[in-house]
From TrEMBL:
SUPFAM superfamilies: ARM repeat (SSF48371). Residues 666-677, 738-753, 782-800 have a biased composition (Basic and acidic residues). GO terms for cellular component: AP-3 adaptor complex; clathrin-coated vesicle membrane; Golgi apparatus. It is a peripheral membrane protein. This is AP-3 complex subunit beta. Residues 678-717, 768-781 have a biased composition (Acidic residues). The gene is AP3B1. GO terms for biological process: intracellular protein transport; vesicle-mediated transport. Belongs to the adaptor complexes large subunit family.
Amino acid sequence: MSSNSFAYNEQSGGGEATELGQEATSTISPSGAFGLFSSDMKKNEDLKQMLESNKDSAKLDAMKRIVGMIAKGKNASELFPAVVKNVASKNIEIKKLVYVYLVRYAEEQQDLALLSISTFQRALKDPNQLIRASALRVLSSIRVPIIVPIMMLAIKEASADLSPYVRKNAAHAIQKLYSLDPEQKEMLIEIIEKLLKDKSTLVAGSVVMAFEEVCPDRIDLIHKNYRKLCNLLVDVEEWGQVVIIHMLTRYARTQFVSPWRQGDVLEDNEKDFYDSDEEQKEKADKRKRPYAMDPDHRLLIRNTKPLLQSRNAAVVMAVAQLYWHIAPKSEAGIISKSLVRLLRSSREVQYIVLQNIATMSIQRKGMFEPYLKSFYVRSTDATMIKILKLEILTNLANEANISTLLREFQTYVKSQDKQFAAATIQTIGRCATSITEVSDTCLNGLVCLLSNRDEIVVAESVVVIKKLLQMQPMQHGEIIKHMAKLLDSITVPVARASILWLIGENCERVPKIAPDVLRKTAKSFTSEDDLVKLQILNLGAKLYLTNSKQTKLLTQYILNLGKYDQNYDIRDRTRFIRQLIVPNEKSGALSKYAKKIFLAQKPAPLLESPFKDRDHFQLGTLSHTLNTKATGYLELSNWPEVAPDPSVRNVEVIELAKEWTPAGKAKKENPDKKFYSESEEEEDSSESSSDSESESGSESGEDEEDDRSGDSAEDSGESGSEPEAGKGRAATRSRARGRGDSKDVDKEKENSKTSESSSGESSSIEESSSDSESESESESESESRKVTKEKEKKTKQERNPLTKDVSLLDLDDFNLVSTPVALPTPALSPSLIADLEGLNLSATSSVISVSTPVFVPGKTHVLLHRMSGKGLAAHYFFPRQPCIFGDKMVSVQITLNNTTDQKIENIHVGGKKLPMGMQMHVFNPIESLEPAGSITVSMGIDFCDSTQTASFQLCTKDDCFSVNIQPPVGELLLPVAMSEKDFKKEQGMLSGMNETSTTIIAAPQNFASSVILQKIVNVANVGVVPSGQDNIHRYEELKFQAL
């Protein structure tokens, strides 16, 4: 007995004991060796002792074994307290394994994990990148809402880490945090936007996955990174390649026009009958117009093609679906060979690939016809694989290969796999319906199968023959008679029901056989299946109407049996038929039409592929596999009729290309003025297709500033000196001075080649046309300008950081070009102004940088009341965002509401009554606003640094209403970020006339820092300056005029 129990213990628990670090000779007592439960207690105690040991080698050994347990799926949660104690170990190897363990069990043991949060936070600053990344993984695995702020801070820091591995883990943590607290979405989107600009291939896949999880509809975040992702795709890890390809597929469907459109237009000739000759000629010209693929569209297709040779089946499948959904049909054929190659993989991969091939082969047979033999069924294939291959063979069948396929099908019918044999018979029926030349051959072959010994084969043949006979019933009376004879031997309910239905439909063609069949089935009615009973009732009704002499009593007998049947469907059918065919006093008007109802011509069944309806799902997705919309599925959008603006993808590329121009060459184009230059936009499009990898982060910020400052010094050196419009403390600048200075700058940059109008149009004049002349001038005058350059270079370098910081606001298209206004030039000469400003303010400009708003109040102001506007209501508010229409303008958002029950048409801004110097950029006219409809539009107003009212008319098609907008003082400011030291320095340089003091009496509860901050930022768009004293709060702002 003891030996048996010892052997049992060795088999059941001995292996585990070895894995868990037990040493039987030293640790297992004789009594414990024969117990069923003591070994479990002992193994954990042993590991706990090793984890509490003073030796790192013992701890490391224990952790390796514990991680081994986890890898084998065994529960090691009991060891959590002992493992957590080692989280602060100085041994890096132990610490790595501890973090691996904690990632697995932190969610289950949340309370214990929270005790170590301070350790995780310290580890986030560890010199080892693996420790930093592991700490972030553990922190994001603790699913407790209370630590969301800590997780957010950790993710922000990790997203700026120097190690790409840590940034990759930050992208993974974004998804976990979003699932824990979806309210953090906006902040997470900012981090995603930052990580999307990362050039590391290690980060690309992870951040795109985070993008797909958090904000898949924010396509605008992809624009600037599109080319970079296309070029990095080949070097990204395989998991990331799949995610990026699926995302780029959706992106391409929204940004490019259909490459298939040309073929569709050529086939559309339906309306030509009513068109005149000229109209037909115009249409013909339109059809002949060649399709020009967008270079970015071509870039995606070209860069994914090499991945068709990937060893990873998921990557090949992802590229295949991309080609299927966005490539021209003439180029999609290259994916067929790669997909056929995947059929040598495991059966799971084969199943998914065959499903997708089945969908493709319905629409484009030619793609897979050369590989027909690859879809022949092997005896070793699983049933599900065999049926899918049959489906594909059926889709590829045509007049040329049908004879070969039918011979192949004859072999399949003899298979021992009955489900596969039945599917083959259905396939033969589909081939008979799709290829009329072999219909008779298929039908005769199926009739031969009726004599098969296998009942399942016979039953399936009967069902298929029934469907085929529905298509041509007049020609096959003999087959119906033959099937009637089989009724006695066939027991499968579906087959018996099919035979009865055929006889009932053709009862007039077999008048002698039909009554006898009814007699036989009447005897076995009570023992038949419900499906067969319903067909017996139908057969009796049809014979009662066509041959009542022979079958009247039989039919009444069957109706009486059905009246008391256990199934309510049969009882209902019996009552219905009796009232319809047996005339009595209660019979309604329908009795007259009973024969037409029962013996009406039935439509022939349509034998279609079960994959026909799956093409609206994206290939390779779970939804396509299941043929139902899965959770999280993102539908592919339809191709746009007109391609969106392609320039959104090359904004960043252009800036960087200009900044990296070699320092030896003088650049004659101001990168800040590119937004409105048409010639430069044409230049952009030519550079964009070849220079997609030139995007970089902020690594070259100082070099770029030097380049810009040097360039602007060269541009202005020809006239000796220039006024410096953007320099000094912006809050003390006057509007006239700023406008006049920018105007002079533009004049000198044009080298006096073009005369300026009184309205100051120089800020938007194209500079590319004068490149050749300016270059020749720079060569001839280079010697004379050297001294001037050196004098002005320092001044320029200190002035440009302000310009750069302003241009890097949230809006990428924020324009630094001043809106042209005719104003008098300053009385002092430009050179004297530059010298004076350089002496006074050059040391202070570098500390000023515009930041994002601390708070955006949601308060709205009534612009037009619905009673005054005859149903049109308008409200406005200040979003505190940089205005895209001009750097000196305040952004105003107006919401228009139609409160009437009629459409309001042509809403636009009419006459304007603005004070001197004030400017307004109006919104585009709105064609119509539906009843109860609402629309929000943006305007830009330059209030000239004052609170004067901007009056204008808001007009519709029929009326005009006078309205006005008056800005609060706090909305004329921009928030500034600076240190406390710089703030004090700037404050000390203010003159007394710029200082104001007042006393405010507040309740005690309003003395808290958060309350004071909320009150101030609610009324003024200011930035918060860090303060070392609790009782002093400092805020800094920048006037719009200083820009």
